[in-house]
Amino acid sequence: MKSYIIHFIRHGAIDETMAGKYIGTTDVTLSDKGRMALRKLDYEEKYPGTQVVFTSPLKRCTETCKILYPEQTPLVIDNLSECNFGEWEGKTAEELKGNSDFEKWLAGDSSVKPPKGESNADFTRRICLMFESMVDGLIKTGTTESVIVTHGGVIMTLLAIYGMPQAKPFEWVMDNGFGYSMRITPILWQRDKVGEVFQVIPIPNEDE
Question: What's the pTM?
Fold first, then answer.
């Protein structure tokens, strides 16, 4: 039976995250260290081949695509963007300490949202609708291998909802430039909306 492989890759490192700032839809570029680390990973390990690359529109993702898949023209999907942290964008947890809404949001209250931002519930709904539509499109077009370059929050949330084995979002955490591969079997997808997460990427070279 035909299966469909989707490779999720988290974008390269940015200075702002390393400084502990909340960066969602703020459009920052990869750091110099982030670019170097991606090139090193690409040289020393193996990223999967693909028929198509999907990417978040934000620069840190499109720049990652250019480094890892320079021969591909990625398809930009707006709903692959990270959660919008609104007025909390660019601030650290220390700076937001004592903010009651922030404390509730941090504790997982899905109804609370950053001022002028996106609640966890709205974020989850947005990316789930996008992902289900994307998987259905891959199956309809017979596209059996694809790459999604996006953000850590997007990947962890999608794998927590659709991935097997079942795990909480934080259990799917990954470093910049790393990710997971998921196998979608049409019958299982149509019945249960789940896919098998079967490997971490990039893959170590066999001769090492």
Answer: 0.94
Contact partners, residue 142, CB within 8 Å, separation at least 6: 2
What pLDDT does 207 receive? 55
Nearest residue to 134 (alpha-carbon basis) of 74, 54, 195, 60:
54
The average confidence (pLDDT) of the chain is: 94
Q: Tell whether omega for the bond before 165 is within 30 degrees of 0, i.e. cis.
A: yes
Q: What are phi and psi of 123, to 5 degrees?
A: -60, -50
Residue 91 near residue 21, CB atoms below 8 Å: yes
The predicted-structure confidence for 107-125, as pLDDT tens digits, reads as follows 888 888 999 999 888 999 9
Structure token digits, residue 181: 């591969």
- Mean pLDDT, rounded, for 91-101: 91
Check: CB of residue 84 under 8 Å from CB of residue 177: no
- The average pLDDT across 13-41 equals 93
Give the pLDDT score at 208.
47
**What is the number of H-type helices and E-type strands within the chain?**
8, 9
pLDDT of residue 205: 80
What sign results for the dihedral spanned by CA atoms 63, 67, 68, 71? positive
**Per-residue tokens: 131:** 């992902």
Q: Are 56 and 114 in contact (CB under 8 A)?
A: no
Contact between 8 and 146 (Cβ < 8 Å): no
Radius of gyration for the chain, computed over Cα atoms and rounded to the nearest angstrom: 17
Query: What is the spatial distance between Cα 148 and Cα 117, in angstroms, rounded to a whole number?
Result: 24
